[in-house]
């Protein structure tokens, strides 16, 4: 084979040596995937390692001039409230009340069917008439007997008749006198029976025992009412419930640990849950000298110094007891108030965690004052309007970013 033929065969042979370019490309692609995987793993590890905590917060409020020494909650109650019923069992004939109606003392609320009571009254009247007729007959007989006694006394004196006949007429007269006395007593009994029967008729008319407002209507015409609830579930025990709105007051349960702060005639600010912007002046009436062992509370009665139709029984109310004698104290009105649960402790000293810009935590050392119900007075370390963390966790520290949890009842 010549030289030229060998060169031609070498040109026709296939070159199977791998190329360097695809190998480099695959190397760079693998390196990029590895970098992405490392970055994703680092991000996931960082997210798990440092989660954003969620906390509830509260705002520090300035203590006013009339600072409360104690806060409590309670309800509006009526000192005079009655479920008005009848004295007798009977069928309701007519009901003349409706809820919300104002009525005066003695005003008719309802009437019962008076048929039985009228019959008893008619019978008593008849018995009284009979007793009166009997006494008329006895008086006529007594008049005749007394005349016979006088006449026979003259005849005996003249000895025209025997004394025995005079004794007979005297005995007859005395017997009639006794019967007349009995008849008079019967008339008194019959008169008393008429009065009782009249009261029975009057008992069919149910009247308001005092002036007030109807808050419940309990019976309808045709129903049976009874003060003894005879007849089970088909018998009503009352016509309606009447409340004297002038007797409204507040009852609160004060923790027995703080009852020493409450004094008689102490001024009180009351705020109804229904009208949170309306501050009602009030004062302590009495501290009930008995404690509830199950709740460790003492009941306190509070008088409302303002009468208003918006105040109704069973309304929820918040009260603040104010000590006028201490209102001029050195630090009684200083500082701010925050929930007691917002004050933590670090190294044995009280601190609070203030929510700063970008919701980052700033720890503040505090100078605390007196307890104010569920709140606490802070004399130094906080300013009015600052937001503090409520119930901070033990590991909460400066610079930690938190997430403020939505308030209870708010939309997510």
Report on this model:
With 412 residues, the chain is an alpha+beta fold. It folds into four domains: 87 residues, Beta Barrel (conserved putative lor/sdh protein from methanococcus maripaludis s2 fold); 90 residues, Efflux pump adaptor protein, beta barrel domain (Elongation Factor Tu (Ef-tu), domain 3), CATH 2.40.30; 72 residues, Beta Barrel (OB fold (Dihydrolipoamide Acetyltransferase, E2P)); 87 residues. It has four helices and 25 strands. The strands form six sheets. It has a six-stranded antiparallel barrel with strand order 3-13-16-15-14-17. The protein has a five-stranded mixed β-sheet with strand order 8-7-5-10-11, with no helix packed on it. α3 packs antiparallel against α4. The two termini are 93 Å apart. The C terminus is likely disordered.
The CATH superfamily label of the largest domain reads: Efflux pump adaptor protein, beta barrel domain
Topology pattern, helix = H, strand = E: HHEEEEEEEHHEEEEEEEEEEEEEEEEEE
Strand content: 25-35%
**Structure classification:** alpha+beta
Largest sheet: 6 strands, antiparallel, barrel
Number of strands: 25
Catalogue the unreliable spans: 46-51, 325-330, 408-412
- Give average pLDDT, whole number: 81
Strand order of the largest sheet: 3-13-16-15-14-17
Shape: elongated
In whole angstroms, how far apart are the ends? 93 Å
* Alpha plus pi helix count: 4
* Annotated CATH architecture of the largest domain: Beta Barrel
Helix content: 25-40%
Please compute the radius of gyration using only Cα atoms: 49 Å
How many domains, as an integer? 4
Classify the fold: give the CATH topology of the largest domain. Answer: Elongation Factor Tu (Ef-tu), domain 3
CATH hierarchy class name of the largest domain: Mainly Beta
Protein name: Acriflavin resistance protein
GO molecular function, one term: efflux transmembrane transporter activity
Organism: Collimonas arenae
InterPro entries: Beta-barrel_RND_2, BSH_CzcB-like, MdtA-like_C, RND_pump_MFP
């Amino acid at each position: 084979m010549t030289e030229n033929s060998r060169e031609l065969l070498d040109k026709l042979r296939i070159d199977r040596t791998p190329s360097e370019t695809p190998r480099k490309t695959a190397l760079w692609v693998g390196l990029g995937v590895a970098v992405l995987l490392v970055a994703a793993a680092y991000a996931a590890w960082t997210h798990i390692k440092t989660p954003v905590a969620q906390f509830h917060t509260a705002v520090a409020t300035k203590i006013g001039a009339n600072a409360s020494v104690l806060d409590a909650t309670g309800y509006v109650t009526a000192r005079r409230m009655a479920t008005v019923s009848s004295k007798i069992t009977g069928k309701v004939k007519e009901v003349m009340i409706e809820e919300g109606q104002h009525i005066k003392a003695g005003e008719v609320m309802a009437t019962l069917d008076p048929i039985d009571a009228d019959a008893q009254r008619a019978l008593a009247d008849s018995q009284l008439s009979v007793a009166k007729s009997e006494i008329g007959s006895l008086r006529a007989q007594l008049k005749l007997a007394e005349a016979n006694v006088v006449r026979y006394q003259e005849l005996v004196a003249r000895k025209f008749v025997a004394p025995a006949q005079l004794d007979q007429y005297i005995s007859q007269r005395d017997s009639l006198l006794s019967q007349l006395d009995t008849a008079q007593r019967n008339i008194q009994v019959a008169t008393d029976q008429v009065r009782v029967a009249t009261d029975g008729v009057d008992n069919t008319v149910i009247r308001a025992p005092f002036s007030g407002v109807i808050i419940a209507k309990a019976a309808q015409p045709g129903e049976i009412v009874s003060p003894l609830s005879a007849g089970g579930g088909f018998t009503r025990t009352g016509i309606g419930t009447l409340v004297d709105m002038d007797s409204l007051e507040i009852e609160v349960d004060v923790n027995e640990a703080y009852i020493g702060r409450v004094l008689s005639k102490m001024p009180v600010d009351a705020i109804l849950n229904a009208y949170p912007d309306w501050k009602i002046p009030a004062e302590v009436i009495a501290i009930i000298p008995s404690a509830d062992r199950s709740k460790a509370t003492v009941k306190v009665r509070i008088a409302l110094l303002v009468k208003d139709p918006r105040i109704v029984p069973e309304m929820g109310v918040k009260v603040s007891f104010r000590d006028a004698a201490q209102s001029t104290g050195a630090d009684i009105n200083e500082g701010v108030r925050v929930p007691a649960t917002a004050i933590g402790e670090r190294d044995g000293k009280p601190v609070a965690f203030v929510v700063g810009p970008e919701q980052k935590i700033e720890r503040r050392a505090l100078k605390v004052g007196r307890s104010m119900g569920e709140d606490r007075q802070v004399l130094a370390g906080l300013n009015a309007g600052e937001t503090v963390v409520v119930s901070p966790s033990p590991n909460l520290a400066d610079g930690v970013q938190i997430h403020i949890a939505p308030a209870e009842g708010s939309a997510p």
